[in-house]
Design brief:
The structure holds 2 protein chains of 2 kinds. Chain A contains 17 helices and 24 strands. Chain A is α/β, with parallel strands linked by helices. In chain A, a hairpin with a 3-residue loop joins strand 13 and strand 14. The N terminus and C terminus of chain A are likely disordered. In chain B, strands 1-4 form a two-stranded antiparallel ribbon. Chain B has a two-stranded antiparallel ribbon with strand order 2-3. By secondary structure, chain B is mostly helical. In chain B, a hairpin with a 2-residue loop joins strand 2 and strand 3. The radius of gyration of chain B is 19 Å and the shape is globular. The relative contact order of chain B is 0.19. Chain B contains 12 helices and 4 strands. Classes of the chains: A alpha/beta, B mainly alpha. Chains A and B meet through helix 10, helix 11 and strand 20 of A and helix 7 and helix 8 of B.
C-alpha cells in the first residue's frame, strides 16, 4: 500500500520529508540484537509533533523494543535517533526524559508505598533548603490535575490503586517532567472496556494539547480509533507506515502476519440435545461469586462474559476445585460431587486452562514433553518410575496434533511464543480426554494465526462431545464461539443469551445500568 | 535457553576438572590414593546431606534443621544401640531423622510458614530436644561388641575406602535416580518450578514437599548414624549448625538453582567435591586456612550470581 509523503518515513537518508515542521523524533535505520536474535533490523520511523502514532505487530515483531529504544531503555547497535533533528544517544530512560521523552512500560514502575503526588513528582519535587516543599508540591499537583482532570486523590498510596489509576499516575508523572512524547506500551492490556475508553479520551486530549503519543497495542480497533498514523512491524522490521484512515483491522492483520488471515470464527455446530454434563447450583464464594447457577451439556460451548472482577474466573476456579465453595452444589451427570482440590476435579474428568499460563499453567524451565504429561504422568509409569518411551510417544502425538511450532518436544516451554505455550497447555488436558474443559482467556497474548487455530480446536472439541466453558474479556471471542452466553456482574448471573446474541445487549448486561458505549 | 543450560552444565564440570588438574600438577601428594580416599571419607556426611537438600531446593523449600536433626539422630543411634543392639541403633537413627523431617513437613505445610524461617526455628527446637534426650552429656555406646560392629560397618575399609563412602555414594545414587526418573521426582520439579501450576495439574503440593522434608530427615538420620559409627557415641554437639549452610552452598555451587524448579543430584556431588578440593588444596599447598573460607565464599557468591545471570533475572 502506498503511503502518502506526509507519513512516509521510509527514507533514512532523506532528512526532512513532507510538511515544514520536521518530526519531533525520528529513528533512522536502527538495529538492535540480543545475542543472536534481531529485535530491530534497519528500522526507520518519524513521529510528528502532537500526533497519535500507533505501533502494531505480532508478539516478538519488535514494537516494544522500538518503544524502549526511543525511551532510552535499550541502546541500538546501529543507526541513530534524532530529537528535533539533533542526533541523540540515550544511555538510560532518565536521559530520554531530559529530552522530553517518557516511556510508560508494561511493567508499571511506581513506588508502591508512596502517595500519588509523591510518585508524580519523585525526583523533581519543589524544594526549599533541601527539604520537599509540601505546599508547593500540592499546588503543582493541583495545576497538573486541572489540566488532565483524572480526579485522583493526591494523598492516596499508589500500591493499593487499580492498574488503570496507576497508569494515570504514570501519565501525570510524565507530564510533570514536561514530556513532549509519551510512549505507551500496551496501556490497555489490563483495563476493562470502559477504562480503556477513558484512557483513549486522555490520549486524544494530550495529543490535542501538542503531546506526541506513541501507542503500542495488540488491540487494533483501539489503535485505529485514536491514531493518525500507524506503523506495522513484522520480524523486527517496519512493514509500512501510513495514515490510519487508510487501514482496517483486516489490512493491519494481513500486514502483521504477512499473508491473508481469516479473522472469522469457525461455524458453530448445531446445539445438540445432549445430556447435561455439569450443573452448578447456587454457587457462592465470598463476595466474588453469589448464587451462580447454570448447566452445560455435552458438546455445548457456554461463554462467561463480564468485566474483570465480575466473578468469571472465580466461578471457574470453584468448578475446578481450585477454591472452596462457601455454599452451593456441583453436579456431574446429575450426581453431586465434592471438589476439595483440583485433583478431585481432574479425577472427575474436569480440566481447566487457567487465566495466566505463566503464573498458573506452565513450568517455563522444563521441556514441552514434561509440561504436556504433567497431569497424566502416572499413566506413563511403572512402580513409581517414568516410562520415557511411553511418555515421549504421547507427548509427540499431542505436539503434532496441536501443531506446536518448535524444534521438538525437548525444547523448553519458556522459549516458545505465547500461542505455542497455550497449545502446550491444551495438550496437557487433551492427554486426559476430559468431559468438561474450562478455558479462561484462551487466546490472551496469543498471535493472530494461533488464535484462529485455538478457536478451531475448541469448536472441534465441542463437536466431539466435550462440554466447554469459555471465559474471555474479548466479547467478540465469546460471541463468536459459544452456543450460549452468561453475563456476569458483581458475582451474579445477570443475563443469558443465545448463539446469535447482539454484542450491545451482552455488554449492556455486563456493565449494568451505567452503560456508556462507543462502538 | 538450551545453550545457556548447557553452558551451566559444562561450566561447572570444567571448573571441577580444572581444580583437579591444577592440584594434580602443583602438588605431588594430591593424586595419592590415600589423599583422594580421605577427601571422600571426610565428605561423606556432606554428600548425603547435600543430595537431600538439593531435592528440597528443587522443590522450592529449604531445610536448615538438618544439622540439628543429624545431632538428634546420632544420639538416638547411640541410645538405640544400648537398648536393642547395633541394628536397633540404625533403625532408631533413621527413624528419628524421618520423624523430625515429617514434623517439619507437617508443621510448615499446615501453617504455610516460610520454609527458611520455619526450619531455622525447628533447628533450634531440635537442638534443644537433643540436649534434653542426651541429658547434656555424651551418650556412649556401652556394649563394646556393638560399638565395634558399627565402627566396622562404617569405618572398616573395603577396596581401600571406608564404609561411610559406600553408604554415602549408594544414598546419593538412589536419591539421584528418584529425582531424575521417578514420578515423585517430576513432581518435585513441578512444585518448585511453579507451585500453583502443579496444584492446578492435580499434584498435591504439600504432600510432595512433606516427602522432601522426610527425605532430608532420612539423610540427616544417615549422617547421625555415620557419626555414631565413627565415634561410638552421640552428643548434642555432634553436628555444627554450619552443616545446613554448607550443604546449601555446595548444592548451589554445583549449579542447582536457589529459586527452585531446576537442579540435579549429580550437581550436589560436584558441588561438594569442589568445596572439598579447595579445602584440600589449601592444606596441601600450605596456604593460610583463613583464605580458604574467603575463597569458598567468593565461589558461592559467584555461583549464585552466575545462576541469576543465566536465568536472565
Amino acid at each position: 500500500m502506498a503511503a502518502t509523503p506526509e507519513h512516509d518515513a521510509g527514507t533514512p537518508a532523506g532528512g526532512r520529508v513532507g510538511p515544514a515542521a520536521g518530526p519531533l523524533v525520528e529513528v533512522r535505520a536502527i538495529s538492535k540484537h540480543f545475542g543472536g536474535v534481531h529485535a530491530l533490523a534497519d528500522v526507520s520511523v518519524a513521529f510528528g509533533h502532537g500526533t497519535v502514532h500507533g505501533l502494531v505487530g505480532e508478539n516478538g515483531a519488535g514494537k516494544s523494543t522500538l518503544a524502549k529504544a526511543i525511551g532510552g531503555v535499550h541502546q541500538p547497535n546501529a543507526g541513530e535517533i534524532l530529537v528535533d533533528d539533533v542526533p541523540v544517544r540515550f544511555s538510560s530512560p532518565r536521559d530520554a526524559l531530559e529530552r522530553g521523552i517518557a516511556l510508560i512500560a508494561q511493567e508499571i514502575a511506581l513506588v508502591p508505598d508512596a502517595t500519588v503526588e509523591e510518585n508524580i513528582f519523585l525526583g523533581v519535587e519543589p524544594r526549599r533548603a533541601g527539604m520537599v516543599n509540601r505546599v508547593a508540591l500540592r499546588r503543582a499537583y493541583r495545576e497538573l490535575e486541572e489540566r488532565v482532570g483524572f480526579g485522583l486523590p493526591a494523598g492516596q498510596t499508589v500500591g493499593r490503586m487499580r492498574v488503570a489509576d496507576r497508569q494515570k499516575v504514570e501519565i501525570m508523572r510524565a507530564l510533570a517532567r514536561h514530556a513532549r512524547m509519551i510512549l505507551m506500551d500496551e496501556p490497555t492490556a489490563a483495563l476493562t472496556a470502559d477504562e480503556t475508553e477513558r484512557l483513549l479520551d486522555v490520549v486524544r486530549m494530550l495529543s490535542a494539547e501538542g503531546t506526541t503519543i506513541v501507542l503500542v497495542s495488540h488491540y487494533l480497533d483501539e489503535v485505529l480509533a485514536v491514531s493518525e498514523t500507524v506503523t506495522v512491524m513484522r520480524d523486527a522490521r517496519v512493514v509500512r507506515t501510513g495514515p490510519a484512515s487508510a487501514e482496517t483491522a483486516q489490512t493491519l492483520v494481513s500486514a502483521m502476519v504477512g499473508r491473508e488471515v481469516d479473522l472469522t470464527y469457525p461455524p458453530k455446530a448445531l446445539v445438540p440435545d445432549a445430556p447435561v454434563v455439569l450443573e452448578a447450583r447456587g454457587l457462592c464464594r465470598g463476595s466474588a461469586v453469589r448464587d451462580v447457577s447454570f448447566a452445560v451439556r455435552a458438546g455445548e460451548i457456554v461463554g462467561l462474559a463480564g468485566l474483570v472482577g465480575a466473578g468469571r474466573t472465580e466461578t471457574a476456579r470453584l468448578l475446578f476445585g481450585a477454591d472452596r465453595l462457601d455454599e452451593g452444589q456441583i453436579l456431574l451427570d446429575g450426581e453431586p460431587v465434592h471438589l476439595h482440590r483440583p485433583l478431585d476435579a481432574i479425577r472427575h474428568g474436569i480440566a481447566m486452562v487457567p487465566e495466566s499460563r505463566k503464573d498458573e499453567g506452565l513450568l517455563l524451565l522444563r521441556s514441552i514433553r514434561e509440561n504436556i504429561t504433567l497431569a497424566t504422568l502416572s499413566e506413563h509409569s511403572r512402580a513409581g518410575f517414568v516410562l520415557r518411551g511411553s511418555e515421549e510417544r504421547r507427548a509427540r502425538a499431542l505436539f503434532e496434533r496441536l501443531d506446536v511450532r518448535s524444534t521438538g518436544t525437548e525444547a523448553t516451554v519458556g522459549s516458545l511464543s505465547g500461542g505455542n505455550q497455550q497449545k502446550v497447555l491444551f495438550a496437557r488436558w487433551l492427554a486426559r480426554t476430559p468431559r468438561l474443559l474450562i478455558v479462561d482467556e484462551p487466546t490472551r497474548g496469543v498471535d493472530v494465526a494461533a488464535k484462529g487455530e485455538i478457536h478451531r480446536l475448541l469448536v472441534e472439541l465441542a463437536a466431539g462431545g466435550l462440554a466447554l466453558i469459555v471465559i474471555s474479556s474479548e466479547i467478540e471471542e465469546v460471541l463468536g464461539l459459544v452456543h450460549r452466553t452468561l453475563a456476569l456482574r458483581e458475582g451474579r448471573v445477570v443475563g443469558e443469551f443465545g448463539p446469535d446474541a447482539e454484542r450491545e445487549h451482552v455488554l449492556h448486561a455486563c456493565f449494568g445500568q451505567v452503560q456508556e458505549l462507543s462502538a | 535457553m538450551t545453550m545457556r543450560a548447557r553452558a551451566r552444565d559444562l561450566g561447572i564440570v570444567f571448573f571441577f576438572v580444572a581444580i583437579f588438574v591444577v592440584l594434580s600438577v602443583s602438588t605431588n601428594t594430591f593424586l595419592r590414593q590415600e589423599n583422594l580416599l580421605n577427601i571422600l571419607d571426610q565428605s561423606s556426611e556432606l554428600l548425603v546431606l547435600t543430595a537431600a537438600i538439593t531435592v528440597c531446593i528443587v522443590a522450592g523449600i529449604f531445610d536448615l534443621s538438618i544439622a540439628s536433626t543429624a545431632t538428634v539422630a546420632a544420639i538416638a543411634t547411640a541410645g538405640g544401640v544400648n537398648v536393642a543392639g547395633w541394628p536397633g541403633g540404625i533403625v532408631a537413627g533413621l527413624g528419628a531423622g524421618a520423624a523430625l523431617g515429617l514434623f517439619n513437613g507437617l508443621a510448615i505445610g499446615f501453617t504455610k510458614v516460610n520454609s527458611f524461617i520455619g526450619t531455622l526455628a525447628t533447628s533450634f527446637a531440635f537442638k534443644g530436644f537433643a540436649i534434653v534426650i542426651s541429658g547434656g552429656s555424651v551418650v556412649a555406646i556401652k556394649d563394646l561388641d556393638d560399638r565395634a560392629a558399627l565402627a566396622n560397618l562404617f569405618t572398616g575399609r573395603f577396596l581401600g575406602a571406608k564404609g561411610v563412602v559406600f553408604f554415602a555414594l549408594a544414598f546419593v545414587v538412589v536419591v539421584g535416580v528418584i529425582l531424575a526418573r521417578s514420578v515423585f521426582g517430576r513432581h518435585v520439579y513441578a512444585v518448585g518450578g511453579n507451585a500453583e501450576a502443579a496444584r492446578l495439574s492435580g499434584i498435591r503440593v504439600m504432600k510432595v514437599q512433606t516427602l522432601c522434608y522426610v527425605l532430608s530427615g532420612l539423610a540427616a538420620g544417615l549422617a547421625g548414624i555415620f557419626y555414631a559409627g565413627r565415634y561410638g557415641s552421640g552428643a548434642s554437639n555432634s553436628f555444627s549448625d554450619t552443616y545446613a549452610f554448607q550443604a546449601i552452598a555446595a548444592a548451589v555451587v554445583g549449579g542447582t538453582s536457589i529459586f527452585g524448579g531446576a537442579g540435579a543430584v549429580w550437581r550436589a556431588v560436584v558441588g561438594v567435591l569442589i568445596l572439598a578440593l579447595i579445602g584440600n588444596g589449601f592444606n596441601l599447598l600450605g596456604i593460610d586456612p583463613t583464605y580458604q573460607l574467603a575463597a569458598q565464599g567468593v565461589l558461592i557468591f559467584a555461583a549464585v550470581a552466575g545462576d541469576q545471570y543465566l536465568r536472565g533475572r
